[in-house]
Amino acid sequence: MNYPLTLSFKVMAVAPQFTVTDATGQVLFYVKQKAFKLKEAVTVFADVEQTRPVAHILADRVLDISATYRFQGTDGRPFGALKRMGLRSFWKAHYEVLRDGAPIFTIREENGWIKMLDGMLLQIPILNLLSGYVFNPAYRITRADGQPLLRVQKQPAFLEGRFRIERLAPVEPADEALAVLSILMMVLLERRRG
């Protein structure tokens, strides 16, 4: 993948739809979440036309702060999971990326104050339109040994969510795909902040 990657979506959409492009502008992933589902169900495509599915992301339970989101290939075989770390995620978002049930990456929000200040600004009429410009959360993806691999930061945008994904260290291709899909699901869950 040619970094930096850009993840963008419309804020006012009924069913969230994300596009992930690389540094050359080529579409890598198109993500469409099913609307009005109590249990998360997301399909990831390799094209905007939605003709080439590459993965499905399915929640293991309905609306839970500690849910696990399982990644399946188009053949139905699982290849990883993203687990939200429940109460630890209230102050700062905290997720673990799993393979065969064992954590291989951790995703953590860098600054919990940004989330809190953004939540307060969102409650003030008119000023809430500025929250996307003022408060932009960042997340760091690290290996189990603590080595930083990727960094995700929300970019200032109006009526659009835009995130930039930067590589901090070399990543194996299989791990890279799992990490980027985990970032996509994390952004779907955290998109209402900042």
Please provide a written account of the structure.
- With 194 residues, the protein is an alpha+beta fold.
- The mean pLDDT is 84.
- The two termini are 26 Å apart.
- 16% of the residues lie in helices and 40% in strands.
- The chain is globular, with a radius of gyration of 16 Å.
- Strand 8 and strand 9 (102-109) form a beta hairpin.
- It has a 12-stranded antiparallel β-barrel with strand order 1-2-3-4-5-6-7-8-9-10-11-12.
Please render the helix and strand layout as text.
Layout: E1 5-10, E2 17-21, E3 27-33, E4 41-45, E5 53-59, E6 68-72, E7 78-84, E8 94-99, E9 102-109, H1 112-121, H2 131-134, E10 138-143, E11 148-155, E12 160-167, H3 173-190
Antiparallel strand pairs: 1-2, 1-12, 2-3, 3-4, 4-5, 5-6, 6-7, 7-8, 8-9, 9-10, 10-11, 11-12
